[in-house]
Amino acid sequence: MSVTKDKLIFSSVTAIGSMPNKYPKRREVAIGKVVIGGDNSVAIQSMTTTDTFDVDATLAEIRRLEDAGCELIRVSVPDKRSADALPAIKKQMRVPLIADIHFHPEMALAAIEAGVNKVRLNPGNIVSEWRLEPVAKELVKRGIPVRVGVNSGSIAYDLQPLYREDPVAAIVQSAHRYVEILESYGIKNIVVSLKSSDVPVTVECYRRYAAESDYPLHIGITEAGPGIIGSARSALGIGLLLAEGIGDTIRASLASDVVDEVVICKEILSSLGVRKFPRIIACPTCARVEFDLIKMTNEILGEVISLNTPISVAVMGCAVNGPGEAEDADVGIMAAAGKFVVFRKGKITRKDLTLEEAREALREEIRIAEEEFRKENPNSS
C-alpha cells in the first residue's frame, strides 16, 4: 500500500533505549579518521557556504566549523576551479573532507584524484550507468567511501510519477537502485541518505530503508529553513530518528550561519543522551530579569561551545530561577537585588559582584570545572 504524506503517523518514542532496536546493526565505514556505523559515535557534519575555489575564504569557514566541533566537512564541487582548489583545502584541514558532486562525473573524478575522504553522489542527476562507471571504478581502486544522497527535489525522471503518488517509495527505491549499481562494481563502503524538507516523509523514508539495508545512514531534514524554523524541523526529524536507533552521521541543514548547524547537532545529541557536549542552561526572560540575559547567554555560548569537556553552564536572570532550577549545572551566574552571584553545583561560591566581575568569575569557574572534569576523566579527549 502506498504511503501518502497525510497518512504518515509518527510512532510514540519516550526515551532513548526505551524500546528494542528493530533495525539491523549498521556496517562500519571509515571516512578518513572518523569511523561511522557499528558501535561508533554519531558524527556531526556540516557544509561550507563559500565558493570552494576561494581557498582562503573556504578554509576560514572550515576553521570555524572545526573549532565549533564539526567532525566531517563537505564542500561543493560544481566546476573545475573548485576541484582544483581541493588539494590546498584538504592539506590544511583537521577533519575529513567530503566532496559534494552533482551532474558532472568528471568533478567526482577530480575530487577523488585530489584525495578527498568521501564523495557524495546524487542518484537524481548522475543516473546513467555509463556516466557512473568511471567514478565507481576509481572509488574501488582508491578505497574511498561514497554517500548515496537521495533528495526529494532530485528524483530520477522515471521515478517522478511514483513520487507524486508515493514519495517515500520513490525515494527509497532511488536509494536501493543506486546502491545496487555501486555494489555491482564492488563498492562496499557506502553511506546512504534519504532526505526531504517534509519531516514525516523523511522520517518514514529512513525507517523503511533502515529496515531493509544495513548501510550506515546520514540523517537530516534537507532545506530545513532559516534560524529557529530550521532548527525546530531538524530537531524534530533528527530527534525522532535517533530515538529509534537510526542515524550514524547528522547534519542540520539550515539557512543560517554554518556554526549554528554544529550547535544544533550537538544539542540534539546531548538532549537525547546520545553524546555528551558542553551545555548552556538559561531561563526565559521576564520582568524579573535584572540584566541583558540574552546577550550574556550568547556571549557565554560562544565560549562554551568549543570546549572539549561536557560541562553545563547556567545563566539565570533572578533568584526565583537560580540556582535552584539550575542546581545540577556545573557552574552558573545569577542576578539578585542588583548584584550578581556565581554558583557551582547549586552552591554559591561568590556574591555581591558587579556584572563585569561576574563575567570574569564565571569564566574562572568554567576553567576550574574543566580541570576537575579532566582529572576525574583522564582518558577523555
Task: Tell me the fraction of residues in β-strands, as a range.
Answer: 15-25%
Number of helices: 11
Give the SSE string.
EEEHEHEHEHEHHEHEHEHEHEEEEH
Gyration radius, rounded: 23 Å
Number of strands: 15
- Largest pleated sheet: 8 strands, parallel
In helices, the fraction of residues equals 40-55%
Output the structural class: alpha/beta
Widest β-sheet, arrangement of strands: 8-7-6-5-4-3-10-9
Shape type: elongated
Distance between the termini: 49 Å
| Overall pLDDT metric | 90
Low-confidence stretches: 9-19
How would you sum up this structure, described in words?
- With 381 residues, the protein is α/β, with parallel strands linked by helices.
- Helices cover 40% and strands 18% of the residues.
- It contains eleven helices and 15 strands.
- The strands form three sheets. The protein has an eight-stranded parallel β-sheet with strand order 8-7-6-5-4-3-10-9.
- α2 packs parallel to α3, α3 (105-114) packs parallel to α4 and α7 (199-212) runs parallel beside α8 (227-243).
- The longest helix has 22 residues, at 355-376.
- It is elongated, with a radius of gyration of 23 Å.
- The termini are far apart.
- The model is unreliable at 9-19 (pLDDT under 50).
